[in-house]
């Protein structure tokens, strides 16, 4: 069976998807990056390799996420694209007609505005923790409540309290204050969900024309309390796609299929899970830019460099894909 591999490596999760020739999702994998993208990608390849065996032949591979360049080298990607492109492609195929994409992950969040299947505007937040999943994770730990239960508890709230959500530090202080006043845990959790939504709309969504149909994806989309808070604020129903937590990797599969229509794949095979990859870096002192150049060694052979603005180093080595 011919298939395509998509890999999305972010700061919190590493997602891998295998899509068949007929564009059906054969397998999806969501694992924690834990600050070690190389190890996470190789772990994912090993797991999928054992599941797929020789029955599935990967004829195209794509990479995305904050570690997309590194991932492209590790797997031998045929296409390397940013998250905006891959998420938009996935939504246009799986939720035709969608006009707004709300994506919230562990460490960042983004909004993508689409019209007639084309991205017309977007914005990202990578600096404020109060607008991301890590904000909820931290509070779940503090409250000693499994993050998986957060959404259900939020839906049981009778009077959600207003939490100052402009900053994660202020939000936590305000939440502690509300606890000391005697508000119920359910009302406080619902207030936290609404605070995250306000933060998102006032920062990432500021000035954007948010039209329905609206797609909600990313790891935080599993939280029913956040979904309800968005629907309350926007007065529109949100659609959570089946593969909401791996949509970037799904988009990579579609792009990989397109990229390999007329040429063979660069995919290194499942055995890349056992290759010895060694990333290093150095500061180029050739000009005042002082670029930090990253280089990757595969089994002691230099396979790629990037990070320089002028191309002095990246153009002097073989790059995969």
Describe this structure in words.
- By secondary structure, the chain is of the alpha/beta class.
- It folds into 3 domains: 2-88 and 248-275, ATPase, nucleotide binding domain (Nucleotidyltransferase, domain 5, 2-Layer Sandwich), CATH 3.30.420; 97-240, ATPase, nucleotide binding domain (Nucleotidyltransferase, domain 5, 2-Layer Sandwich), CATH 3.30.420.40; 278-316, no CATH class.
- Helix content is 34%, strand content 25%.
- It contains 9 helices and 13 strands.
- It has helices at residues 37-52, 68-75, 83-94, 133-143, 150-155, 168-181, 185-203, 224-234, 247-259; strands at 2-9, 13-20, 25-32, 57-64, 79-80, 100-104, 109-115, 118-125, 214-217, 238-239, 277-283, 292-298, 301-306.
- The strands form 3 sheets. A 5-stranded mixed β-sheet has the order 3-2-1-4-5, with helices on both faces. The chain has a 5-stranded mixed β-sheet with strand order 8-7-6-9-10. It has a 3-stranded antiparallel β-sheet with strand order 11-12-13, covered by helices on one side.
- The longest helix is centred in the middle third of the chain and has 19 residues, at 185-203.
- It is globular, with a radius of gyration of 21 Å.
- The mean pLDDT is 88.
């Amino acid at each position: 069976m011919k298939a395509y591999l998509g890999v999305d490596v972010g700061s919190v999760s590493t997602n891998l998807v295998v899509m068949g020739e007929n564009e059906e999702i054969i397998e999806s994998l969501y694992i924690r990056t834990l600050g070690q993208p190389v190890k996470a990608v190789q772990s994912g390849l090993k797991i999928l390799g054992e599941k797929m065996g020789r029955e599935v032949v990967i004829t195209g591979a794509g990479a995305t996420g904050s570690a997309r360049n590194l991932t492209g080298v590790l797997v031998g990607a045929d296409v390397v694209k940013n998250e905006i492109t891959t998420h938009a492609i996935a939504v246009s195929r799986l939720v035709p007609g969608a006009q707004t994409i709300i994506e919230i992950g562990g460490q960042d969040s983004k909004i993508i505005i689409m019209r007639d299947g084309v991205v017309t505007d977007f914005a990202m937040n990578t600096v404020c923790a109060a607008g991301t999943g890590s904000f909820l994770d931290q509070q779940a730990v503090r409250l000693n409540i499994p993050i998986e239960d957060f959404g259900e508890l939020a839906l049981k709230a009778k009077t959600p309290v207003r939490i100052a959500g402009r900053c994660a530090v202020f939000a936590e202080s305000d939440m502690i204050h509300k606890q000391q006043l005697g508000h119920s845990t359910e009302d406080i959790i619902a207030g936290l969900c609404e605070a995250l939504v306000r933060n998102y709309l006032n920062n990432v969504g500021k000035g954007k024309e948010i039209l329905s149909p609206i797609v909600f994806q990313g790891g935080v989309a599993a939280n029913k309390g956040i979904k309800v808070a968005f629907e309350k604020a926007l007065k529109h129903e949100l659609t959570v796609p089946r593969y909401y937590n791996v949509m970037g990797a799904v988009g990579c599969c579609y792009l990989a299929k397109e990229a390999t229509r007329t040429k063979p794949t660069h995919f290194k095979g499942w055995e890349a899970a056992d290759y010895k990859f060694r990333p290093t870096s150095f500061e180029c002192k050739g000009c005042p830019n002082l670029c930090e150049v990253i280089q990757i060694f595969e089994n002691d052979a230099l396979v790629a460099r990037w990070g320089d603005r002028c191309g002095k180093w990246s153009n002097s080595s073989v790059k995969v894909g």
